[in-house]
Amino acid sequence: MTKPVRVALLGCGTVGAEVVRLLHDQAADLTARIGAPIELAGIAVRRLGRDRGALPVGPAVFTTDPLGLVKRDDVDVVVEVVGGIEPARTWLVEALRAGKSVVTANKALLAEDGASLHDAAAEGGADLYYEAAVAGAIPLLRPLRESLHGDSVNRVTGIVNGTTNYILSAMDATGAGFAEALEQATELGYAEADPTADVEGFDAAAKGAILASLAFHTRVGAADVHREGITEVTAADVASAKAMGCTIKLLCIASRGPDAAGVDSVSVRVHPAMIPRTHPLAGVGDAFNAVFVEARAAGQLMFYGRGAGGAPTASAVLGDLVAVARNRLAGVRAASESAYAALPIRPMGEAVTRYHISLDVADRAGVLAAVAGVFAGHGVSIATVRQSGRGEDAELVVVTHRASDAALAATVAELRDLEHVRAIVSVLRVEGEP
Amino acid sequence: MTKPVRVALLGCGTVGAEVVRLLHDQAADLTARIGAPIELAGIAVRRLGRDRGALPVGPAVFTTDPLGLVKRDDVDVVVEVVGGIEPARTWLVEALRAGKSVVTANKALLAEDGASLHDAAAEGGADLYYEAAVAGAIPLLRPLRESLHGDSVNRVTGIVNGTTNYILSAMDATGAGFAEALEQATELGYAEADPTADVEGFDAAAKGAILASLAFHTRVGAADVHREGITEVTAADVASAKAMGCTIKLLCIASRGPDAAGVDSVSVRVHPAMIPRTHPLAGVGDAFNAVFVEARAAGQLMFYGRGAGGAPTASAVLGDLVAVARNRLAGVRAASESAYAALPIRPMGEAVTRYHISLDVADRAGVLAAVAGVFAGHGVSIATVRQSGRGEDAELVVVTHRASDAALAATVAELRDLEHVRAIVSVLRVEGEP
């Protein structure tokens, strides 16, 4: 029998426990697929006594010393499902430098400091796989890192956060406001007690950085991503979207194109946006994730599936584990980070899209002319205007043609100070073909 | 500069010409991604003089001797986009045995005799990649061959033929009959002059065999696939489907499960079926392809994109070409065919699904009771019955609960001979959750 591949598992929460179960239940298949059995060398946890349900491992396999486990000579591969920047970075850099392959689901670390990990992997000649870090079980890493490597990706548009998609889908279906939908999501376990990372878009921004890095062969970090969450999205916004034949989704949009000076560059942004109900992403409901890719030759592709949860995430981890184990047996290393293009990041002000602006104005003659004049003054062309009088006040909804974020921001700032404009009720981007 | 990777291209039709153009236009990117330039050693064509548009290669690169080209010492990789069983098999076996990597889009050959190619690849220690053979640009090979290798795939349901999907989508949208929709598809270039391979399901069956082989780690050939085309689908069937909240698609369904004797086995079938409009595959329109995968841990995944056309297919070919070129430079070979499970093929009679049966009957008392008795006699449970009288005749539409194909076939045979049953108008399977 071939020598087993020995794995150190860091973390044993929902995902870790599922990895342990799948390793046990599918042992025969994994051995056949890899050509050698997988053995758990150890599982590092914070507390030994915690109830982890029925796991098919003895108590001796657990340790509270993750770094000690990583450094053990009998460990070939390190699987990390703890999350967070430190101490995970220290463990993984240690492992990679020592030539141990790493499989991680740690999107925050990859987006914050992927460079440290990639550099350590190059130094140690080790594999770094992270399919589970973006969109859970949906295979994206290999399609972007391999299948599309003979093509040129123009744009990646994703729904990559299940919590916010659940909330926005519920708001769309029931007409509920954000607070109510969040409460429901929390009760059903779709949102964490502190939902900040999800609803403020931090999680989606981290995934956007990873996707953009892969798609554009350029190192993109979380700090390069323009980020807006969904906490300001109201029931009225959702109703406005419906009236336009749209739905609101938290999108992560990574695109490649010329900047204002004509230099090839990358833009990554996360924000809520209206998209037409006919767009393939519009039908992605509940906590599902989907990533829409536009490439020069391949055209439009979409990848859809469960973005989170113990079993789907564990499936992605195990797929990576099979790959790195095979590579070790073959004595080879996968293609390393591809960052040769090193494209500059385009500032958010240069991002071009359409906008839906809702204004609360006094119902007087000349107001529309004044408002339209402000748009024109900043070169923002208006596609449609809808005015509904309400006695003293009127609601004015303006949808623009494509304009830069900077021009729109300047327009909104000036509108705010305009006489008879009582309030800018909302500003939402409109994505997808009109 | 690293020594170039030299490629022999067999075939220069729509796909081949696009490969040539992309190799030229993206040369710098491909070199950076591979670590060495790609060079075209030669292009084998049937006729030298044919107009191939403006291609960025000189006339000296063309040859009418494909086997001679494959055998040349300066050829590292062979790309085949000719199609058909012979002489493609001879060329590719020759290449693989000589240790030359092969990238092919030849689904017919892979489904008919994939074993010869895989065996030759093992013998020569060469790579065999064929992403373009199934669903064009949609990355499926790597997700099934790698990403899901730590998981267990239960079922693959695909729309894998663009021509028939275009025809059925048109029938659904306009109420046209099959002949009319086919004519339109031919005019628009979606169907070939001889549409047999598409409309009779041969193309989908070949792809189903390839998908099942990958998903279930078992050699599945075209002969193992139950195949029915769409030529019998009528405008009335489409209307009946609509009345049930369904649409009709040509599905390729590969599933793993116990056979009648409880033995783990594989079933692959291609046939038109009604699916609920809420199913993710129902929204796949025009000539698009999509493959829906259900895995134990990953849950539901869907892959969507263009299944055919020069550029999308060329994108898949180039992705494979980058991979095999990298492997050659690294002196390694990708994981070879995984057929260790070697599951038996379950007979079609044991396939279990629901059915929609439309009968033309005499409008007499007792007919419904007699018909219901025949279903009961074969253990086929009825879910709904709808009878619409038309004077002398009545139309009887029966939708069953899940039953085996054998039981349904026996039921239909007996119904055909029943007094007062004038005709079995149609029998369609109903897939997806009720």
UniProtKB/TrEMBL annotation, chains A, B:
Highest taxon, organism lineage: Bacteria
The UniProt record lists the keyword Phosphoprotein: no
CDD domains xref list: ACT_HSDH-Hom
Pathway membership: Amino-acid biosynthesis; L-methionine biosynthesis via de novo pathway; L-homoserine from L-aspartate: step 3/3; Amino-acid biosynthesis; L-threonine biosynthesis; L-threonine from L-aspartate: step 3/5
Pfam families with a match to the protein in the record: ACT (PF01842), Homoserine_dh (PF00742), NAD_binding_3 (PF03447)
SUPFAM superfamilies registered for this protein in UniProt: ACT-like (SSF55021), Glyceraldehyde-3-phosphate dehydrogenase-like, C-terminal domain (SSF55347), NAD(P)-binding Rossmann-fold domains (SSF51735)
Reaction catalysed by this enzyme: L-homoserine + NAD(+) = L-aspartate 4-semialdehyde + NADH + H(+); L-homoserine + NADP(+) = L-aspartate 4-semialdehyde + NADPH + H(+)
Residue span(s) of domain ACT: 356-432
Cofactor(s) needed for function: a metal cation
PANTHER family xref list: HOMOSERINE DEHYDROGENASE
Family, per entry: Belongs to the homoserine dehydrogenase family.
Protein name: Homoserine dehydrogenase
Organism, as annotated: Plantactinospora siamensis
